[in-house]
Amino acid sequence: MLSKLEPVFWLLGIAGLYATIGMGVVIALTANKLKNRGVLTGALLILAVFIVTIFKVGVANLAVLIGLGATALIVEYVLYRFGLAPHLDWETRKYRKEMIRQTSLHSVLLSGSLIFLVPFVWLVVTSLKEEKEMSAFPPVWIPTQQVKMDIDGKSVGLANLAYEGTTAKVAIMKEYDTGDRLVRILEPSNLSGKELMTKVGNLKEIRHVAPVWKNYPSAIKFLPKETNGGLLYLWNTLQVSGLSIIGSLLSASMVAYAFARLKWPGRDSLFVVLLATMMLPAAVTMMPVFLIFRSFGWIDTLKPLWVPSFLGSAFNIFLMRQFFMGIPTELEEAARIDGCSFYTIFWRIVLPQVKPALAALTIMSFMGSWNDFRGPLIYLSSPDRQPLAYALQLFQTAHSSEPGLLMAASTMVMMPVLALFFFTQRYFIQGITLTGIKG
Fold first, then answer.
1. What is the CA radius of gyration of the chain?
2. Which residue, 210, 216, 254, 395, shows the most beta carbons closer than 10 Å to its own?
3. Closest CA to 375 of 436, 306, 432, 424
4. 153 phi/psi in degrees, rounded to 5
């Protein structure tokens, strides 16, 4: 019966964890607004003790989690009821309700962020581990290396060994395939210099926090020499990404301006047809497009990867059209009175007003072309024309048994996209919201 109710208890424990932290934050913020230093100090102290205890004991202990959460909630309620509630006025109560709303919202957002962040953290951490830590259970989240020192002209690892009722610090002088180890005692001093044989299971390695950075140059070293350390793959990817961005911006902005601002017969009907193309799966058009490119003689070239961007994308055109429609028509009318042509209005008046949409389109085009794997798989066969995404797949096939090198290679391929999104996320979010410029 208890085993069936265990998931319920876990939910209660996690809910108590969130409620304790959230209530402590709300009490601390409200006390700070009232300048009640006693309650503020008490709330911060409760939060500190609770968080430190949770980290020390761990959330794996269900009984401790529930008991500690319930105790902290009771103490926080007493602190609020007798230390804070008597001093609340209507303005502070309104502030407290807003803080409760904000705290709840940010708790949900932070939880979702942590869930989506775990795979990325695991990728980076694994790329910095030694081989023995990659398959360890429970998983190792902080990379470490065995402490080593130079003895007799060679670097040897250090470990602890239970010997004659004491814990001896030993240096592993030689390793044997049978699992035996020749060790030399370093401490205590009365046994220093003594050598003996022991099983590897009797040794506890002395480790310190130290990432294994050599995985990254080792991953590059395994690439074919003719790729110049992967720079050839990078150059191919940059070509495709740069041309795709230029093509997407030009085609989407021009076509969208025609749909949004110019009046011509069949405009709305043709726009509906354009949007209908978004319902066509890529697998349906794959073969006809391949035959077209083959008739042009573009197979095993980079052209099929970037030329389609100059022909426009339904989603990109729709995105730009929504922004164009949000621009006041008075700007264009004033430009026409001054004698500007449609092209002048487009380049000098309208286009500068949709910078958020252009930024979002640039980011999406870059990410799509940088991570494109299907296109190179279909159209390319020569190794010297492969982009990073396809090269990473080849690297995985050749080094699937070396997770450290594979994770290092994946991290290096992913970092440019991650850095671009990190520094331009404001423009990306602003562009996706389709706010436009209102008069």
1. 31
2. 395
3. 306
4. 80, 10
By CB atoms closer than 10 A (0-12, 13-18, 19+), residue 259 is buried
Q: Are 354 and 331 in contact (CB under 8 A)?
A: no
Which of these, 313, 316, 305, 296, lies nearest to 388 by C-alpha position? 305
Please list the residues that pair with 157 across neighbouring strands: 148
Tell me which fold the domain 220-432 belongs to. Answer: MetI-like fold (1.10.3720)
* Per-residue pLDDT in tens (0 to 9) along the chain, 439 residues: 445 666 776 677 777 778 888 888 888 888 888 888 888 888 888 888 887 877 776 656 667 677 777 888 888 888 888 888 887 788 888 888 888 888 888 888 888 888 888 888 888 888 888 877 777 777 788 888 888 888 877 888 888 888 777 888 888 888 888 778 888 888 887 778 788 888 888 888 888 888 888 888 888 887 878 888 788 888 999 999 999 999 999 999 999 988 988 888 888 899 999 989 888 888 888 899 999 999 999 998 999 999 999 998 889 899 888 888 888 888 877 888 888 887 888 888 888 888 888 888 888 888 888 888 888 889 988 888 889 888 888 788 877 777 888 888 888 888 888 887 777 777 666 655 554 444 4
CB-based contact 316:248 (threshold 8 Å)? yes
Whole-number Å distance between alpha carbons of 367 and 419: 11
Determine if the peptide bond prior to 265 is cis (ω within 30°).
no
3-state helix, strand, coil in the chain (%, to 5): 70, 10, 20
d(CA 264, CA 267): 6
